[in-house]
DNA sequence: ACTCAACATTGAAAAAATTAAATTCAGCGA
DNA sequence: TCGCTGAATTTAATTTTTTCAATGTTGAGT
């Protein structure tokens, strides 16, 4: 079990109004007086790479807003194969299924250093009761999650392994805050794209040789978008 | 443009309470008095195979509950490739995205004969305003759509072409009302599984040779589940 | 019965991906 | 420094998939 660090724990939600990504977060449009009536702990937590937010089958009493970093959602199949079905980034919500009282159908594991806002289901539920804004926000989260799933199928599970890797790099580039982005292990890339580790390695090595992909430090990289774009189709 | 046949059109929603699949449908738990206040047309429509419910980019004022038959959701990519991202069956909802006011990101096209219940967005919106049951029903639709998308990725976009075809047949079998199911064209199977038409044809032909798959009539088939199951992994 | 068009099947060659094994490389602790 | 370890890469053999082209099959319409 990896370690976790609780930076700050707040009674109530005073912190939310000064949250740097509030415009992206679940409570974006919730009026202040709604917060004032809520006095439940909303924790701001930092996780290191490889931490499990929850596992397939878990029944967790939280949802998580990703404040920074990347989280992979992976499903394991009976035969042991695993497939990463989505990668969440800043502003995305993890654990939506839990709100409907269903057990998780996937693992959620941090890829790099991740900060999340952990919100008890009970808070969401009680706010949802009388906040149409939150209703809308939740529906929009579902919408964007589904849209992301579609993209995952059409862009990252289709075409040759090279195209898939190229599209994955573009995807990671687009969702990054700065001009570099987190480069997953070849193993994870394979699980994201439905190809073997070796195929992922071959494609990334080729892009690096051609200078379209440059590694920066340990786990980060940047790409030449104009050069890589043609390789996507 | 394909033809459509309007079996019955109803002013108001009197019909809903006697709907045969109401337990599966969107308005399952809506109290009768809510219906009585609504007087907008909810149409019961039959489509023949190949009819487009809506196309990518459309901004439609309806959602559709599938009463019978199958509907494919397909995304087209810039290079012209298409990928079927999901197949909807009885009780599923098509056009959810429209509720959030977003244009459709996919085509919805009937595979076989399909009957739908076409509900104006405005009806859903006005009912949603004061019906927590409908809120719940909508969230659950989103949930099951997302869960289906995950299944699509892990089961139908992973592994060898034979496994994918086997899993698709199992999937179609499970969702069928009777013991036969609609067998898509090899072309559509390819688009569902991310493989070529020929690969889909070879796999289905092999299963037929082995007697694990039997065609029944034109577009329908049945499988020997016990024989086919091992081929899924 | 004939024709046409759409769909399905098949075979052979080419291309691509997977498997397996070996190698390089960087970081880490003794 | 040395050896260890995990990750990434390389290589070669094998398997799978795609491509391309030809051949069957089927049903609708004449």
Question: Any descriptors?
Answer:
homodimer; 233 residues; alpha+beta; Jelly Rolls; Arc Repressor Mutant, subunit A; 2 domains; five-stranded antiparallel β-sheet; four-stranded antiparallel β-sheet; DNA-binding
Detailed description of the structure:
Two copies of one chain form a homodimer. Chain A has helices at about 30-35, 95-100, 120-130, 130-155, 160-175, 185-195, 195-210, 225-230, and strands at about 5-10, 40-45, 50-55, 60-70, 70-75, 80-90, 95, 105-110, 115-120, 180, 215, 220-225. By secondary structure, chain A is α+β, with helices and mostly antiparallel strands. Chain A has a five-stranded antiparallel beta sheet. The first copy, chain A, folds into two domains: about 5-150, Jelly Rolls (Sandwich); about 155-230, Winged helix-like DNA-binding domain superfamily/Winged helix DNA-binding domain (Arc Repressor Mutant, subunit A). The interface between A and B is medium-sized, with 34 and 34 residues. Chain B binds a DNA duplex (30 and 30 nucleotides) through helix 7.
């Amino acid at each position: 079990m990896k370690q976790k660090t609780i930076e700050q724990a707040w009674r109530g939600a005073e912190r939310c109004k000064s949250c740097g990504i509030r415009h992206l977060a679940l409570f974006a449009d919730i009026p202040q007086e709604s917060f004032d009536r809520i006095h439940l702990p909303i924790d701001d937590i930092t996780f290191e790479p490889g931490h499990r937010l929850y596992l397939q089958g878990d029944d967790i009493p939280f949802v998580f807003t990703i404040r920074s970093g990347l989280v992979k959602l992976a499903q394991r199949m009976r035969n042991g194969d695993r497939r990463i079905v989505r990668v969440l980034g800043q502003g995305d919500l993890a654990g939506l299924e839990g709100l409907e009282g269903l057990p998780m159908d996937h693992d959620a594991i941090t890829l790099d250093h991740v900060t999340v806002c952990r919100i008890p289901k009970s808070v969401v539920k009680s706010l949802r009761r009388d906040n149409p804004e939150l209703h809308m926000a939740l529906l929009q989260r579902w919408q964007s999650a589904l849209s992301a799933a579609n993209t995952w199928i059409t862009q990252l599970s289709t075409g040759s392994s090279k195209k898939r890797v190229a599209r994955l790099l573009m995807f990671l580039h687009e969702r990054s805050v700065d001009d570099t982005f987190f480069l997953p292990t070849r193993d994870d890339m394979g699980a994201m794209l439905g190809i073997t580790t070796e195929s992922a390695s071959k494609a990334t090595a080729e892009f690096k040789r051609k200078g379209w992909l440059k590694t920066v430090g340990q786990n980060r990289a940047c790409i030449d978008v104009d050069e890589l774009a043609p390789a996507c189709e």
